[in-house]
Amino acid sequence: MNRRKIFSSELLDITIQRMTQQLIENHGDFEDTVILALQPRGVFLAERLKTCLEENIGRPINLGYLDITFHRDDFRRREKPLQANTTHIPFLIENKKVILVDDVLYTGRSVRAAMDAMITFGRPQAVELAVLIDRKYTRDLPIEPNVVGQHVNTVASQRIEVELKGKDYQEDSIWLTEKTQD
């Protein structure tokens, strides 16, 4: 398997700062905006964005964790059952602007499932999508992110591996991997 680093820790810090500034431009003081992280991989990015936003804005930001397991369209198609994660949304999303956060946008199916799951908690005023990596040319559904860390052109045989500090890794790295033919 070929593996190439496309993000270092330093570049990731700069990217998160840039995404934070873009979110502040779009949402101001975040008084009517909340963040929902897609479980499990969006949580670490959302927590970093939240920390950075709070440092810049000077007020607490509402962050919740959204499990999409039972809303996935492949839930019953798998041989091995999926393990559900915890949904934790300690605030109302009714009439709020919601920012869904995930690490990688691939086919768009997880985002579709997240929107279904989110609606069970109320009807938001608006929904935006923030992703660290947007894999271009791989979409199954017409879903596009509003805030993107990096666009990466990929093909089906490639994967993006996100390794974030605090998520079983000592340092931040993002890798593009490709299966080699045996």
UniProtKB/TrEMBL annotation:
Gene3D superfamilies: 3.40.50.2020. Keywords: Glycosyltransferase, Transferase. Pfam families: Pribosyltran (PF00156). Transmembrane segments: none annotated. InterPro entries: PRTase-like, PRTase_dom, PyrR_bifunctional. Residues 11-153 form the Phosphoribosyltransferase domain. One of its GO terms (molecular function) is glycosyltransferase activity. This is Bifunctional pyrimidine operon regulatory protein/uracil phosphoribosyltransferase. The lineage of its organism: Bacteria, Pseudomonadati, Bacteroidota, Cytophagia, Cytophagales. The gene is pyrR1.
